[in-house]
Design goal:
Keywords: Membrane, Transmembrane, Transmembrane helix. By secondary structure, the chain is mostly helical. It has 1 helix and no strands.
């Protein structure tokens, strides 16, 4: 069962930077809208 789990972890880590940048952009946009 470690095979699929490890593959999923590698996939998640691979997407992590783009997800973080997307979240930061969304937070910045919502923060700008709040003002």
């Amino acid at each position: 069962s470690s095979g699929p789990c490890k593959a999923l972890l590698v996939k998640y880590i691979g997407f992590c930077p783009s997800v973080v940048s997307w979240m930061m952009a969304a937070l910045t946009a919502s923060d700008a809208m709040a003002r």
